[in-house]
Write a structure and sequence with these properties.
The structure holds two protein chains of two kinds. By secondary structure, chain A is mainly alpha-helical. In chain A, about 75% of the residues lie in helices and about 0% in strands. Classes of the chains: A mainly alpha, B mainly alpha. The interface between A and B is medium-sized, with 22 and 25 residues.
């Protein structure tokens, strides 16, 4: 366990904890963004530069902004204190337990990590365009459908 | 001789690092990074100071007045006076503002702006931080700016701030698409996301005198123009400065900031402008390569900063000449014109590649761009058709 790992872990966990416990919804959303940055830092630490950059790009540039806007546009009482919600604790621990169970069930953790070649963006591009081209196209189709759906939703109705 | 002048800064860094010859690896890395950071900050903060006074002087010239000319020779010490003024101003935080978010917004916006500078090759072997996905890093960091702008708008707890932040985020998200898609043709042709590889691919000359810069191909020229306009929007400059819109919403998301925090926003705007211009030079204008073979003895970094200066002058020039656009005009332009044209650039680059990258490819990709441009202009032309004006009494 190296020093950077410990530092990043503490920061990420603290941000995640803050996101769960902070009173103001907007503060929680912003600390959630900090937790995203922490995750990206983990990817960098593992040498997965591309994934880390995409993590920042997608999760800070798009998802965090989306969350923030959703809060802003839907809640009229952003500042209101909601009190403690026990049902969410149940859901959260159920998800946590399920994930832990899945992680301990898998065989890949016990196998020693194979010697990794230096992974460049070029390799990732080649793999995406050959072996994983169908999943890539399916995701593209899904996103296009979502985009068109959003456009249809906001389109002005003709009188 | 010219070789040693070209590499003078690289040598200087090596000399500064020489005491660390026997130090552990991580210490050398930290020292090297610190030298890079200090060099970057020193150069670009000086450039910021210079740019702020030059902008005022050039704007003055355009508007037929002198501009600042009292402080120092030709008013060159104006930024120093401005800096002192900003520092000693009272820092006002509104009572109902969200104190932490209000404070963090300028910090975040300045940090992201400066980070983006790190991947640009300023000269031969002078890239501060070489990472494999450099271009991706630039946009990943740039997308964080939106969150910072939002924090400024929301943290101020003020309607004008919030409106300004909304406007800024709306136009930044819209123009991020053409901005990134116009980069794709270059990445496709070069086959790399590394800025150094992109600059290296633009080395040499066609027919012995035309530099192999991407701006001299039809798709490159179109992509450069689209990239430049998107860059104008991303840095919230005139004619796309509706987020600030001082005649409508005071100063947008910066309304509640005063003193040094306001100066930080101002600085971040300029640094962001330098970064996006630097990326445009790297992608389309041949990076630090000289335009003529006979001038290759001039050091590479001088070429880079000469190109940077030229493009920054265009920024100032546009600010002095164009009025502010409306919000709906900006949005329509982004989605109806910029985005289809950006995709056309990709197609044209592919045509150029498969037609042999020569004169034939040049002509074919020109045809693709011209057809798409003409079709879009005809479709999007919403001007009212008036009958020819006739005069009854005057002739």
């Amino acid at each position: 366990m190296s020093a950077p790992f410990v530092i990043i872990s503490i920061l990420t966990l603290a941000a995640a904890l803050a996101a769960a416990t902070l009173r103001k919804l907007m503060h929680a959303a912003l600390s959630f963004a900090v937790a995203f940055v922490g995750l990206a830092a983990f990817f960098f630490l593992l040498g997965a530069e591309f994934v880390g950059l995409v993590q920042i790009f997608v999760y800070i540039g798009a998802v965090a902004v989306l969350i923030v806007f959703t809060i802003l546009l839907t809640r009229r009482d952003v500042e209101k204190d909601r009190g403690f919600n026990w049902s969410s604790v149940v859901v959260a621990s159920a998800v946590f337990g399920g994930l832990i169970w899945a992680i301990f069930k898998t065989q890949s953790v016990s196998v020693a990590a194979p010697e990794m070649p230096v992974l460049t963006v070029k390799h990732i591009g080649e793999v995406l365009m050959t072996g994983y081209v169908w999943p890539l196209l399916c995701v593209g189709l899904l996103l296009t459908a979502a985009l068109i759906g959003a456009l249809v939703l906001v389109m002005e109705e003709k009188q | 001789m010219s070789e040693s002048i070209d590499q003078i800064f690289v040598r200087m860094k090596q000399w500064l690092l020489s005491p660390f010859a026997n130090a552990p690896d991580w210490l050398v890395q930290v020292a090297s990074s610190l030298i890079n950071i200090f060099a970057l900050l020193a150069v670009f903060l000086t450039l910021f100071a210079l740019m702020s006074v030059l902008e005022r002087k050039i704007l003055g010239r355009i508007q037929n007045r002198y501009g600042p000319n009292r402080v120092g020779p030709f008013g060159l010490f104006q930024p120093v006076a401005d800096g002192i003024k900003m520092l000693i101003k009272e820092d006002i935080v509104p009572m109902r503002a969200d104190k932490i978010v209000h404070f963090l917004a300028p910090v975040l916006i300045a940090a992201t702006a400066i980070l983006a500078l790190g991947i640009i090759p300023y000269g031969r072997g002078m890239t501060p931080f070489t990472i494999d996905g450099g271009i991706l890093f630039f946009f990943a960091v740039g997308s964080t700016t939106e969150l910072a702008v939002f924090m400024a708008g929301w943290g101020s707890n003020n309607k004008f701030s919030m409106l300004g932040a909304m406007r800024a985020i709306a136009q930044m998200i819209s123009y991020e698409l053409p901005l990134i898609i116009t980069v794709l043709p270059v990445v496709m042709i070069v086959g790399s996301l590394t800025p150094d590889a992109i600059v290296a691919a633009q080395d040499g000359y066609v027919f012995g005198f035309v530099p192999r810069w991407f701006v001299f191909t039809p798709w490159g020229a179109a992509a450069f123009l689209l990239f430049f306009v998107s860059g104008l929007v991303e840095s919230n400059r005139t004619p796309f400065d509706v987020p600030e819109g001082e005649s409508e919403i005071v100063a947008g998301h910066m309304t509640e900031y005063s003193g040094f925090k306001y100066a930080t926003f101002f600085m971040a705007e300029y640094i962001g402008m330098f970064a996006i211009t630097g990326l445009a030079i790297t992608l389309f204008l041949g990076g630090w390569h000289a335009p003529v073979r006979a001038l290759e003895f001039v050091p590479s970094y001088i070429w880079f900063f000469a190109k940077l200066g030229g493009l920054l002058f265009v920024y100032i020039w546009l600010r002095g000449t164009l009025p502010r656009t409306r919000v709906d005009q900006i949005m329509n332009f982004a989605w109806k014109f910029m985005l289809p044209m950006a995709f056309t650039c990709m197609v044209a680059a592919a045509v150029w590649h498969y037609a042999g990258r020569g004169l034939r490819g040049w002509l074919w990709s020109f045809v693709v761009i011209a057809v798409a441009y003409t079709a879009l202009s005809i479709i999007l032309d919403t001007r009212k058709k008036f009958a020819r004006r006739t005069y009854r009494f005057a002739e």
